[in-house]
Design a protein that fits this description.
seven-stranded mixed beta sheet, alpha/beta, 7 helices
């Protein structure tokens, strides 16, 4: 098992990070990337979409509502329960299972699309490589991967390296026990470099890498959320 229990104990069981609506960037990237899908499936009801680390189901219900055959896995029992309730409330059918990135409960080459919306950053680099090897196993040839990964230009990592934010280093660009901010109480956090992406996704023909950032310049609510991430789209060779 490769799941960091911090997400169950500190986040989802405490009703934190309960997202109800799909991530905007994912929506646009998902539909723009369908042009690259090279599996036999063509009709939406035949295209199997798996989100790994699906959390509380905010992306799942939307994908299912759009007519795709939708699957989700998460290591958190509480997250899966909330996700099932959300999908039922939206009246959509989604197969949601409590499972782990290193042991996906699906047959070889059974999925057309695999989505990772900031889920596979929660481990060491060797962990993450193993997770993507397992994802590769269940992805069909010609299938799509769409991955969002926090980058090494993330403001929190910059603060850590400048000594402005306390954290315990695990390995290069990898930390735990981050004192405050959006990564507090979330276990191990890895910030990916650009060059790492080509190694992680070596099983793919990479079609797109975006450097996506958000910087709050003015916010009266004092709820700023600044981040930097890579968005990767690839097709399994």
């Amino acid at each position: 098992m490769s799941f960091d229990s911090s997400w169950e104990e500190n986040i989802y069981s405490q009703k934190k990070h309960i997202n109800r609506y799909p991530y905007g960037e994912l929506v646009s990237i998902f539909f723009n990337s369908l042009q690259f899908l090279a599996t036999q499936a063509r009709d939406r009801e035949d295209i199997k979409v798996l989100e790994i680390g699906s959390g509380t189901g905010n992306n799942l219900w939307f994908i299912a509502q759009e007519g795709f055959k939708t699957y989700g896995i998460d290591g958190s029992r509480s997250a899966c329960k909330i996700a099932n309730e959300l999908c039922e409330a939206r009246n959509v059918k989604v197969n949601i299972q409590q499972a782990y990135f290193d042991n996906l409960p699906f047959d070889d080459e059974s999925m057309d699309i695999i989505i990772d919306r900031e889920a596979t950053y929660c481990g060491t680099l060797s962990d993450i490589k193993l997770w993507w090897q397992e994802a590769n196993r269940v992805l069909k040839k010609g299938g799509l991967i769409i991955s969002f990964k926090f980058s090494d230009t993330n403001p929190d990592l910059v603060k850590i390296k400048e000594g402005l934010l306390k954290a315990q280093e695990v390995e290069a660009n990898t930390y735990k026990n981050i004192e405050s901010g959006s990564f507090h109480n979330t276990g191990i956090v890895h910030f990916s470099t650009y060059d790492e992406l080509f190694d992680l996704f070596s099983f793919c023909d990479i079609k797109l890498i975006n450097a996506n950032t958000s910087t709050t310049l003015y916010d009266t609510s004092n709820a700023q959320y600044n981040y930097a991430e890579w968005i990767i789209v690839g097709v399994k060779k």
